[in-house]
Amino acid sequence: MGVLVITPHLTRGGTIGMIGAFQWAGVLEPILLCIVMEVNVHETGDIVRVLEIKATAADLETDVRLALRKLQSVTVLRGFRSGRVPLKMIRRIRTEEATQNIANNLVKEVFEDMVKENDEYALLGRPREIKRSYELDGDLQVLVEFHVVPRVELNNLTEQVLETPVAGEVTDSMIEFFIRKKISKYVANRPLEEGEKIGEGVVGMFDQVWYRLTEIDSTTGLVLFQGRNEVRSFDFGAAKYLGPDVDEFRTAFTGRVVGEEVFIEDFMEDTFLIDPVGQEPYYQAEILEALRFEWPEVDDEWAGIISNEAVDTAEKLREWVREYLSDSFKERSKHILDLKFKERMFELHPFALPPSFVAEASEELRRELGEEMNPLAHVDDYIAYIRWQVLLEAIEGQVDLESSEGEVSIPDSETKPESENKPIKAFESPHNNFLTEHLLKQFEVREIPVPEWQMMYVIANEL
Questions:
Q1: Whether the predicted model's global pTM rises above the 0.90 cut
Q2: Which residues have CB under 8 Å from 179's CB, separation 6+?
Q3: pLDDT tier at 415, thresholds 50, 70, 90
Q4: How far is residue 226 from each of residues 230, 243, 282, 339, measured CA to CA in Å?
Q5: Do the Cβ atoms of 146 and 127 come closer than 8 Å?
Q6: Residue (of 289, 288, 240) closest to 268 by Cα position
Q7: In this predicted structure, what is the pLDDT of residue 218?
Q8: Where are the alpha helices (DSSP H) in 38-170?
Q9: Do the beta carbons of residue 263 and residue 284 sit within 8 Å?
Q10: Stretch 314-336: mean pLDDT, rounded?
Q11: CB 406, CB 438: distance < 8 Å
């Protein structure tokens, strides 16, 4: 008995043929059988392609017969010898398996021939079947979605300008602020004592004030009906209160004591509020309570705690803080420049990540981290990272790198030990990648000096 062998054969015009042959006594002889399917690849997005496979029942007759015979050879059923169950019965009891096997094998072969072996497609991730319509002895239609590196043309970068903040000199007040921020984690606070005033000097850097804020009619001086009347707090050392927008609050409370009333002409959160009769309100703040941290003397033990054992004496501490802050600000400036570089690259080279790709990437992250790591908190960063890698792969072949530019540099994080007070690091910094460093050099970088309050904000919020 001859054995029918089916081998794939690519044809032109969006079709793929399956050429049959008889194997007899080890010799392959071609026969006239030629199964032709309709195969198309549709572009449905920047990185999305859909492989469509269509075949008629007549096209699949041989596949059905071979699938049923293969199942027959491994089927064991009471009353029949092994491999001798009638094909009619196999067709009835193992229809679903036969159907799945035929479709799966066909899709695998076509995808490998039309997509994986095609130099036109640089694949991203794994393909997924989005539609299957097939019943045994019927027509077949299968849709397979897959993702590819998008077609992105590299723009001219030499006319692009990036602005990066540059910190000024580290001042004594910033050093003192950093030291007291580190100490505040370990000490309690207390009410201000008689003679102590809010926010004064070094000891008042982290004072906390509770006050009742009331809206006053600027014309009559009376409390506005249904106006703001609530108890709020003001923390001199909190990051959100270090900007110039609330400088009036800092000025108003500094040097005051509990029980006093101060007036504030502008309240940053409510400058848009206007009285119904057209009168602009102003604000009265009655100081209800004020607390201050019980600051210890900064000795050698505190120096070790504050510097994470980088120094062991109080005499060395301030110079260490100055150097640490200077390094941190430089790293932050580089970090911001890196982020702006990536944002501009995305603006100049846009492409869309489809929901299916994002969902696949998110699921991959969940599998890697596990539920105990709360993967949802990292999805946005992970998608941004993947998006960046896709862009780099899309433009990599368009960049003419000179061999004299050297090899990829090693990130500092791979060569330096971890530290509680380590300077801020940029994730996947362009400076740590040969290609992106080359691209970044083409931009014009302008340095913008930042005021002291912004440097204080970094200390309070990130250091």
A1: no
A2: 298, 306, 317, 318, 321
A3: very low
A4: 11, 29, 14, 45
A5: yes
A6: 240
A7: 67
A8: 61-74, 87-93, 95-111
A9: yes
A10: 95
A11: no
Residue with tokens 């050099």: 441
Spatial distance between the Cα atoms of 1 and 21, rounded to a whole number of angstroms: 13
H or E stretch including 453? helix 452-462
Do 242 and 453 touch, CB atoms closer than 8 A? yes
Q: How far apart are CA 104 and CA 67, in angstroms?
A: 11
Mean pLDDT of 424-448: 77
Q: Give per-residue pLDDT as tens, 346-363.
A: 999 999 998 888 888 888
* CB-based contact 17:9 (threshold 8 Å): yes
H or E element in which residue 188 lies: none
DSSP type of residue 411: P
DSSP state of 424: P
Helices (H), 314-354: 314-348
What backbone torsions phi and psi does residue 242 show, to the nearest 5 degrees?
-100, -5
Which has the closest alpha carbon to 337: 424, 421, 429, 245? Answer: 429
Exposed, middle or buried by CB within 10 Å (0-12, 13-18, 19+), for 39?
buried
Quick one: 161 exposed, middle or buried, by C-beta within 10 A (0-12, 13-18, 19+)?
Answer: exposed
Give strand pairing partners of 291.
Answer: 191, 208
Q: Which of 278-292, 305-319, 326-340, 415-429 has the lowest mean pLDDT?
A: 415-429
Output the CA angle 455-460-463, nearest 5 degrees.
85
Which residues is 428 bridged to in the sheet? none
Which stretches does DSSP call E strand in 236-358?
261-264, 281-293
Cβ pair 303, 397 in contact under 8 A:
no
What is the pLDDT averaged over residues 285-301? 95
Residues 117-165: tens digit of each pLDDT: 998 999 988 899 999 999 999 999 999 999 999 999 999 999 999 999 9
**How far is residue 155 from each of residues 237, 341, 395, measured CA to CA in Å?**
45, 14, 10
Distance from CA of residue 69 to its chain's centroid?
51
Helix (H, G, I), strand (E, B) or coil at 13: coil
Residue type, 19: I
Q: In whole angstroms, give the CA distance from residue 320 to residue 329.
A: 14
Number of residues assigned to the chain? 463
Cβ 63 vs Cβ 106: under 8 Å: yes
